[in-house]
Amino acid sequence: MLYPAIENIQHLLNNGIGPTVAIANIAEYTNGGEEQHDADILISLVNIEEVRLAREPRYVVKIEDELYPKNPAVHLDLSLLFTAYGAGYENNIRNLQEVIAFFQKQPVFRAVDITELANDGIERLTLELVTLSFEQLQQLWSMLGGKYQPSVLYKMRMLTIDSREEQPVIAIREVETILKRRN
Known about the structure:
This protein has helices at about 1-15, 25-30, 90-105, 115-120, 135-145, and strands at about 20-25, 40-50, 60-65, 65-70, 75-85, 110, 125-130, 150-160. The chain is of the alpha+beta class.
């Protein structure tokens, strides 16, 4: 579910803006450790957060007449770093501007509008711009082990991972209680 969500964003950008977009770990990319792409923008997953407020405490789900055991779904927010890389500083800034403009025009993507999202079991993706302070920006790029490149951070909200067991459980039909008297 993680990779298909990011891959869908990559495809949407590649179809919606001029610069080419690839998924790559910018930390490895800048150090020469990852295969080089002919892309103008790199998407890197830099953080995953669980959204606990959205937890649903159901432990079984009913499908037709069967009950299946199920743990609560995990709701995630992903931090995606869009880095303009390799096209010269001026072009990098222009390319980054196109990414920002794209998400400004359309920050929400729904499965009812985009078949690929529905095919991957994703109901909705929402992208929200995250503003980092200079200190946070320095910490991020230090963590990535690279020198600063023109980049922008977006939070992709509420990606849900939900699964259930394949074997149904037997429903409790009756409860028998036995009371004992104390002497």
